[in-house]
Specification:
heterodimer, A: alpha/beta, Rossmann fold, 5-stranded parallel β-sheet, two-stranded antiparallel sheet, 5 helices, 26% helix, B: mainly alpha, 11 helices, binds iron/sulfur cluster
């Protein structure tokens, strides 16, 4: 049979989001897209549009203000999708760990498929990570994608809906129910 | 027979041109670039993706845009009236603009606005080109224009004006403010996803066919000149695309309207009186 799944691997479109990083890793991501490392030879396009992308590249330790946007972007991406955490601070908090204004890593909020360590990560590692993510992307089936509860109810005051702090931590849902 | 085949395979040929262009652009930047079949890989992937429908009109208008463009290309290949072709092409742009306005996304609205403004800038030039062909060949019929000698010498100024229209239609810098990939995230295409985005993606390939077929009309019955024009302009456009930055919408309209209209008018007046 004509298998559409194998084409997923050949045209990964990337969405890049900065959840409060120091910009070190963002520069490395741009470097890996630029002529020297040329990620485009794998068919990668940096789309910037969540509705048309397959790979979610996140940098940064998730500041309090970026949580809702992170989850929003994740939910706006159509299945199948993979998430790559680029940089130590994105994986665990890194140099920002235990600071008062950040969460420790994006996996507190969204499921992550590939972790790339390094502060800052080198473009070679990013390319390795993307290639690894493509293997995962090919294996993903629609059944594997379980709906996750990522938001809690928005509060409303005087009829004005306040969507600040609606992002839900992984594990928080069990404590509430 | 060959016409029917050409019409049927028009999107695929356009896809090849697009893929080849990505390779050429990569080589100009001294990198390897994606494989030639990359646009088709993208297409197969998009079939398999989940699709979000924002509202039914939005998706239907997107598909209509693709179908009308295909009809436009078919009309050119069959040698129909040039004015029909240009107005039908305008209709296809209108479908896209309406689709952009039918959703709530602000980026989509900005994209539609810019698309409308761009249409304002290039449409008069396209019509003047049609008038120029009429004055040289005595007919609006593309079949008749194709039988006459190459008219690029007598329509040279209009040809230059058309060179300014091409980057707008193909979304190439310096005139790519309508799409503006990182700035307004693709403009009208932002809310399309999955298989519905694919129609827009293929419409982009058809746009290539449309633009280059119009270009080849300047060569008349001289096939070799036509192919030469195609290759020359293709390389020139990519070179300009790589070498320039995006300009603002305001400046786009000013440059294209003032320069293009002047060039076109000079050419038409020259044809009428000289
Ligand atoms: S991992 Fe290091 S270099 Fe990268 S964003 Fe975090 S702090 Fe900056």
């Amino acid at each position: 049979m004509f298998d559409l799944k194998k084409y997923r691997k050949k045209s990964p479109w990337i969405l890049h989001y900065n959840a409060g990083s120091c910009n070190g890793c963002d520069i490395e991501i741009l470097a890996s897209l630029a002529p020297k490392y040329d990620l485009e030879r794998f068919g990668v396009i940096n789309t910037g549009n969540p509705k048309q992308s397959d790979i979610f590249l996140v940098t940064g330790p998730v500041t309090y203000r970026s949580r809702e946007r992170l989850v929003e972007l994740y939910t706006q991406m159509p299945e199948p999708k993979v998430v790559i955490a680029v940089g130590s601070c994105t994986c665990t908090g890194g140099v920002f760990r235990d600071m008062y204004n950040v969460e420790d890593g994006i996996d507190r909020y969204i499921p992550v498929d590939v972790y790339i360590a390094g502060c800052a990560v080198s473009p070679e590692l990013i390319i390795d990570g993307v290639v690894k993510a493509l293997e995962i992307l090919e294996k993903k089936s629609k059944e594997m994608e379980k709906a996750l509860k990522l938001f809690k109810e928005a509060t409303s005051e005087n009829g004005v809906i306040n969507r600040r702090n609606v992002a839900l931590k992984v594990g928080e849902v069990h404590e509430e129910n | 027979m060959i016409e029917i085949l050409l019409i049927l395979f028009a999107p695929i040929i356009g896809g090849f041109i697009y893929g080849f262009e990505r390779v050429v652009r990569a080589r100009m930047q001294n990198r390897q670039g994606p494989p030639l079949l990359q646009p088709f890989y993208d297409m197969f992937k998009l079939i398999d993706k989940q699709a979000f429908i924002v509202n039914p009109y939005h998706t239907i208008l997107g598909i209509m845009h693709f179908i009308t463009l295909w009809v436009v290309v078919a009309f050119i290949i069959m040698g129909q009236n040039l004015l029909y072709v240009i107005f039908l092409h305008l209709l296809s742009s209108i479908f896209l603009i309406l689709a952009g306005f039918s959703v709530k996304s602000i980026y989509s609205h900005i994209g539609s606005n810019r698309e409308l403004l761009a249409a304002l800038a290039y449409e008069p030039i396209l019509i003047m080109i049609a008038v120029g062909f009429f004055m040289v060949n005595g007919s609006f019929d593309i079949a008749v224009i194709r039988e006459h000698d190459a008219s690029i010498a007598s329509l040279f100024l209009l040809f230059l004006a058309y060179l300014m229209v091409m980057p707008i239609k193909l979304k190439k810098s310096p005139f790519d403010a309508t799409e503006a990939h990182q700035e307004i995230v693709g403009g009208v295409e932002i809310e399309f996803s999955g298989i519905f985005f694919e129609f827009l993606y293929m419409a982009k390939w058809l746009e290539y066919i449309f633009v280059y077929l119009l270009l080849m009309l300047f060569a008349g019955d001289n096939i070799f000149l036509g192919i030469g024009l195609f290759i020359g302009v293709f390389l020139l456009l990519n070179l300009i695309d790589n070498a320039t930055a995006r300009i603002k919408m305001k400046h786009l309209i000013k440059i294209v309207l003032s320069l293009g209209l002047t060039l076109g008018m000079c050419n038409l007046i020259g044809l009428a009186y000289v």
